Amino acid sequence: MTFGIGAAIVIGYLLGAIPFGLILTRLAGFGDVRKIGSGSIGATNVLRTGNKALAALTLALDLAKGAAAVLIGASWGIEAMLAAAAAVVLGHLFPVWLGFRGGKGVATALGVLIVIAWPVALAGALIWLSMALMFRYSSLASLVAAAAAAAFAGIVVDGERALLIAGIAVVVIAKHHENIRRLLAGTESRISFTKS
Model-level pTM? Predict the structure, then answer.
């Protein structure tokens, strides 16, 4: 392993492990976001506080850390870039300071995709938005968007990037296992776009 790849992995993981949702909700006086809704630290669960601006900021920061990690990794070459992409998503999913229990990785993965395959990112974002507006289940939208992104990547990007995107999609989908059970049981929470 070269220095660049190793550094990209470490930096990517540490960036990914920053729990912006948890930090922002505590700073805003909402307490521990893990104690509400799905218990996740991501933007969808932050939205359940009723503060759309805070959820939007969480989304932006989680997306930004994904993009930043990939851009930093790219300074050491393609392999380091791809390593950073994987590491930042894993950092968000399994942050060491939260007992390896993080978010679902959707926003961070989107940040990665914007840098390494923007057409896939655009397609995934549009699919997520369409599904979310139609059914109002963030988890369902994320599952469909992740699967579609992996399939689309196999057509429009090179083998290494397509394989990485497929791997990220599999991990993101696996992280939604509790949501999948709730969807099947009809007990999954819907997104509200009307709260202030």
Answer: 0.93
